[in-house]
Design brief:
Chain lengths: ~60, ~220
């Protein structure tokens, strides 16, 4: 059995033991969790484009 | 055995020559890439492959040990989580890869088959993940199966693809769809090797301009 402290450390940062929160606006309906994941994907895409690539590499042309 | 003129060549010879002609070793395993490849956006394809390898290996372990193992033992739960989160990561980096390739028009320069094969892999991967949810052997799987059957029946494929038939869903998940994903992914990578990485739009325009005198020092990757 895990101690309450271990539960607090190892458990989810957000309480997932309840119904998901849903954003519903006209035809649009999506869980907040999915919206967050899509936002993070867009953020990572932008970072991948704007951040400089660190290593120098041999180039062929 | 050496061949003489006029003697019909063996099919193995023809296959070998066609394979080496389409993908010579320097194309199959290149040691240099164009300067524009030095960007983080070009990393997400190989991240997708890396995640797929973890997905397949952890899935094989789960399949060998069985549901009672992955639901009740600590190491089974660990591998269950590895399988889940590697799939999450697989889709995350695959979507970023897809967006990046869409905005750089990765179908240009005779790369239509590369683009289409990647899109097909994406769609089959969604079906693979869906059948994975149905193969968990828990209440979550039962809930998804009973909800999903109505949608699939509504489009008329319920008799061929029955979410309530665990054996059928499990076969789709562990054999048919993963084999399709892996084979198409391999073909996708070979097409990338054959045609090369798509250049970004500005580099393509610059390539059409006259080459200036020798720059000093040469512009290298950052």
């Amino acid at each position: 059995m895990q101690s309450p402290l271990a539960h607090a450390v190892l458990g989810a940062l957000i309480d997932l033991n309840k119904p998901a929160r849903i954003v519903h606006w006209h035809f649009f309906q999506m869980s907040v969790a999915n919206i967050v994941v899509i936002a993070v994907m867009i953020f990572v895409l932008v970072l991948a484009i704007v951040l400089p690539f660190p290593a120098r590499r041999r180039v062929s042309r | 055995m050496s061949e003489t003129a006029g003697e019909p060549r063996m099919w193995t010879t023809r296959v070998r020559e066609a394979a080496v002609g389409a993908l010579p070793p320097e194309k199959l395993l290149p040691d240099e890439q164009p300067v524009y490849v030095a960007s983080w956006i070009y990393v997400f394809g190989v991240l997708t492959i890396a995640a797929l390898i973890v997905v397949v290996v952890s899935g094989v372990v789960l399949g060998l040990e069985g549901p009672s193992w992955w639901h009740t033992t600590s190491i089974g739960l660990f591998f269950n989580s590895i399988h889940l989160w590697s799939v999450e990561l697989f889709f995350f980096v695959m979507v970023v890869h897809l967006w990046g390739k869409f905005f750089m028009g990765a179908w240009r320069g005779g790369r239509a088959r590369t683009w289409v094969s990647g899109a097909v892999v994406f769609l089959i991967a969604i079906a693979t993940a869906f059948t994975g949810y149905l193969s968990q052997q828990n209440f979550d799987a039962q809930w998804i199966a009973t909800q999903g059957k109505d949608g699939l029946n509504a489009v008329g494929i319920g008799s061929f693809f029955n979410t309530l038939d665990f054996g059928q869903m499990y076969t789709f998940h562990v054999i048919l769809l993963p084999v399709a994903v892996v084979l198409l992914a391999v073909w996708h990578v070979l097409l990338v090797r054959n045609r090369g990485v798509v250049p970004p739009y500005p580099a393509r325009r610059l390539a059409a301009e006259p080459v200036p005198p020798e720059p000093s020092p040469p512009e290298a990757a950052r």
